[in-house]
Amino acid sequence: MCGIVGYIGARRAEDVLLDGLRRLEYRGYDSAGVATMQGEAIHVVKMPGKVVHLTEALARTPAPGSIGIAHTRWATHGEPNQTNAHPHLDCRGDLAIVHNGIIENYDRLKIGLIERGHAFRSETDTEVVAHLIEEYAMKLPFEEAFLAALRDVVGTFGIAVVSRREPRKLYAARRGSPLVVGIGQNGEYFLGSDPAALIAYTRDVVYLGDDEAVSLSDTGMETFSFDRTRITKTRESITWTIDEIERGRFPHFMLKEIHEQPAVIVNATRGRLDADAGLAKLGGLKDVEARLRGIERLSIVSCGTAYLAGMVGEYMLEEYAEIPTETELGSEFRYRKPILDPAVEAVIAVSQSGETADTIGAMREAKEKGVLALGIVNAVGSTIARDTDAGVYVHAGPEIAVASTKAFTGQMIVFSLLTMLLGRQRRMSQATGSRIAHELLALPAKVERILAQSDRIKALAKKYIHAQSMLILGRKYNAPVAYEGALKIKELAYIHAEGYAAGELKHGPIALLEPSFPVLAIATQDSVYEKMKSNLEEAKARRAPLIVLTNEGNEELVRIADDLIYVPRTIEMLSPILNVIPLQLFAYHLAVARGLDPDKPRNLAKSVTVE
Ligand code: F6R
């Protein structure tokens, strides 16, 4: 989604801003721009399309100066063209602004501003804020004008502004859209909507909270609320490295991240398991452990792939911790007026980015009702991580490819740890806890065995490259994996794929099956294997080509399957963690074989910070 970069210091701002924008490209965008200041002159260059187009434009018309702001835009209000690209200026070109989020009352504000003589150039909601600040700045010092404008705005924003009125100051503020300040050497400051924008320069950061603003200047940094009360912030240190956000030997981030999954499992379980005692230790939940003992119902809220990890979590928690659990889409949960009992219920928000607007909304809905809010989050310091009462980090490292892979695996690992923790608080035996723990520890080596089959799966993808549609089937723990496989195929290869709980086949989708409609079925040898075999027969009888995923050593499906993918055995509850990996590889290779960029699927953004 949109990205913000800012800089003030002694370097050429243009270089730092472009570098930051490149590192934010993975988030998805459709235009880009910069505004720098030299003396009292503002230089704005913006282009539709990629950062490379902006770089070319800047080679023709450089943006001089050592202070500036920059943006990658993912269109919400107005087409993705040069006029609508950020930064935006006020009427007189006295200030430049970049904005992530949505100004919900922009049309009402815009009507008033036009009536009072302001001339708009773009169709964006953002430009309203530029004119609003301009109006207040006619009668107030710039800082006060900036804050007054923010107080008028309804909606979400991460905003950065430079102004000719204060040529060596960069202002920024957030409400619902992340911003992080990087503290560099010798009094320089960096701003980013994502730490990836500034990690090459510094690891010392301050995360802005909601309704907080910051001013960055050559003499220092000040943080304050929108009513100008000073706020003292603590510095934090980013622990991941630049290598983790670079592609290395892999042709795409997605393939790199798929291959990182053995390490993700190691990192997500490190220090959290006492395998022989059958216990999971989750430091982030320590303070609420007593409250967790009294929990009788759980709601898992999340979106997209994280939602599907939540579904796997639901199966685990109900079967092994014996806690009634519902998984729900954040976008539904927050508006359907859920009935929650704070005495016995908890909500678990699952999110890779920790910034997904719908998940944040659902979590806040629960918190307002006094319900214990827990988070399973990958991005350290993100909004969900900070706003929940307690939580568990996934520790998957930065996920750059737009489509989530390693975070999904990490989320399922955390759910299995949570299941152990809550299960052992209840009726789970030491033997069961220990079995799960030992199986978890054995997973990384098993994932390696699947990754070694990447070339075979690539050949398989080539065989199905022309499929128009596909059905992905799974049951019980592997129904969500089927949904996830279908989601990956849709979003990466642009092939219509539907994930179905296999028992539903005969209740409708079987009507679609014919020789040109491939079916990919997850048929690992678990408690529903025999049922899956019947579904395979049903599909075969309609002459649908059958790709079957089953366990190593199981030869009985050779007769029925057109193609087989083998995965190692594990316990049923952990089987989704292995079974999803061939599906990720299949979707990846399908996309590449079809000439598509799997890292940046069309129309998608990495973190969806608007509703
Ligand atoms: C799909 C995908 C999305 C995200 C969803 C939630 O590959 O990545 O469906 O899973 O937008 O994002 P997070 O986990 O950041 O809340």
Overview of this protein structure:
The chain has about 600 residues and is of the alpha/beta class. The protein is built from 18 helices and 26 strands. The strands form 5 sheets. The protein has an 8-stranded antiparallel sheet, covered by helices on one side. The chain has a 6-stranded antiparallel sheet with strand order 5-6-7-8-12-13, with helices on one face. It has a 5-stranded parallel sheet with strand order 18-17-19-20-21, sandwiched between helices. The protein is globular and about 80 Å long. Bound molecules: fructose -6-phosphate. Fructose -6-phosphate binds next to helix 9 and helix 16.
Largest sheet, if any?
8 strands, antiparallel
Tally of helical segments: 18
Q: What gap, in angstroms, lies between the N and C termini?
A: 12 Å
Outline: globular
Give the SSE map.
Blueprint: E1 3-8, H1 13-24, E2 31-38, E3 41-48, H2 51-60, E4 67-73, E5 88-89, E6 95-100, H3 106-115, H4 126-137, H5 142-152, E7 157-163, E8 166-175, E9 180-183, E10 189-192, E11 204-207, E12 212-217, E13 220-225, E14 236-237, H6 253-259, H7 261-269, E15 273-274, E16 279-280, H8 289-293, E17 297-302, H9 304-321, E18 325-329, H10 330-333, E19 345-351, H11 357-368, E20 372-377, H12 383-387, E21 390-393, H13 406-425, H14 430-451, H15 454-463, E22 469-474, H16 479-493, E23 496-501, E24 519-522, H17 529-541, E25 546-551, E26 563-567, H18 575-593
Parallel strand pairs: 17-18, 17-19, 19-20, 20-21, 22-23, 22-24, 24-25, 25-26
Antiparallel strand pairs: 1-4, 1-10, 2-3, 2-4, 5-6, 6-7, 7-8, 8-12, 9-10, 9-11, 11-14, 12-13, 15-16
Helix pairs in contact: 3-4, 4-5, 7-13, 7-14, 9-13, 9-16, 13-14, 14-18, 15-18, 16-18
The structure holds fructose -6-phosphate.
Fructose -6-phosphate binds at residues 303-306, 351-353, 356, 359, 403-404, 487, 491, 607-608.
